[in-house]
Amino acid sequence: MLVARSLVLFVLAALAEIGGAWLIWQGWREHRGLWWIAGGVLALGVYGFVATFQPDANFGRILAAYGGVFVAGSLAWGVVVDGFRPDRWDLTGAAICLLGVAVIMYAPRGA
Questions:
Q1: How far apart are alpha carbons 35 and 39 in whole angstroms?
Q2: Is 31 left (phi over 0), alpha (psi -120 to 50) or beta?
């Protein structure tokens, strides 16, 4: 159950961070305005809190593992939202990152 909770929190963190950054990008680079930027800032604030709900108490471990989720999530966001077509190297890199997440977060450790 703890692994499932952790995975859900990683997905929520990715949605908040990637979505927030995307909103700021749209507001500034695509000239959609300050409301988009404000929405992005709020989403990034939400991202900052999501990690605190992870079952593991080690900030460095959580953030290191989340980096792999961010990589894969960013590619997925690009596919779904922007029509990006990752190549095999993008997908290989994302798979390696997710393997790193699994090792960092879910490898058996001694008490």
A1: 6
A2: left
- What tokens does 61 get? 């471990």
Largest CA distance in the chain: 52
Sign of the C-alpha dihedral computed for residues 90, 66, 44 and 73 taken in this order? positive
Residue 35: name the closest of 51, 44, 23, 47 by CA: 23
Per-residue pLDDT tens digits for 73-98:
999 999 999 999 999 999 999 999 99
pLDDT digits (tens, 9 = 90+) for 37-51: 999 999 999 999 998
The three-class DSSP label of residue 102 is helix
How many Å separate Cα 51 from the centre of its chain? 10
